[in-house]
């Protein structure tokens, strides 16, 4: 795991403590539909139907989606077992997207 990826997970934990995330499939879908979600994390090892559903929803509502982490990494970052997490605070989301872009550039 790169330093940027670790920073993203650390920020995700911080956002959880600040109560700026929504976790769980039903709640995240509701957050996406109401345009509260600014960024969605989907576990890379999620089920096929879950992946398809969230990719379609995020594309339709134009919400960034990150599928870089597995269930264990996401769950450890937020302190509860979840496959899908939505960040609802724009500042956290913006920084996580920047770090994600940095991580992609270093892995190329």
Kindly describe this structure:
59% of the residues lie in helices and 12% in strands. Strand 2 (39-42), helix 3 and strand 3 form a beta-alpha-beta unit. The radius of gyration is 13 Å and the shape is globular. The two termini are 14 Å apart. The protein contains 5 helices and 4 strands, in the order αβαβαβαβα. The chain has a 4-stranded mixed β-sheet, with helices on both faces. With 108 residues, it is of the alpha+beta class. Helix 2 (25-33) runs parallel beside helix 3. The chain has helices at 3-17, 25-33, 48-61, 71-78, 90-107; strands at residues 21-23, 39-42, 65-66, 84-87.
Secondary-structure blueprint:
Blueprint: H1 3-17, E1 21-23, H2 25-33, E2 39-42, H3 48-61, E3 65-66, H4 71-78, E4 84-87, H5 90-107
Parallel strand pairs: 2-3
Antiparallel strand pairs: 1-4, 2-4
Helix pairs in contact: 1-4, 1-5, 2-3
| Low-pLDDT stretches | none
**What percent of the residues sit in helical stretches (DSSP H or I)?**
55-70%
- The average pLDDT value, as a whole number, equals 93
Q: Given the C-alpha coordinates, what overall shape results?
A: globular
- The H-and-E topology, N to C, reads as HEHEHEHEH
């Amino acid at each position: 795991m790169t330093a940027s990826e670790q920073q993203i997970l650390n920020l995700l934990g911080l956002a959880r403590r600040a109560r700026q995330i929504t976790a769980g499939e039903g709640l995240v879908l509701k957050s996406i539909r109401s345009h509260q979600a600014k960024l969605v994390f989907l576990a890379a090892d999620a089920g096929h139907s879950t992946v398809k559903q969230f990719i379609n929803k995020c594309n339709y509502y134009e919400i960034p989606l990150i599928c870089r982490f597995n269930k264990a990494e996401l769950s450890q970052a937020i302190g509860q077992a979840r496959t899908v997490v939505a960040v609802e605070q724009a500042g956290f989301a913006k920084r996580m997207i920047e770090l994600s872009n940095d991580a992609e550039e270093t892995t190329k």
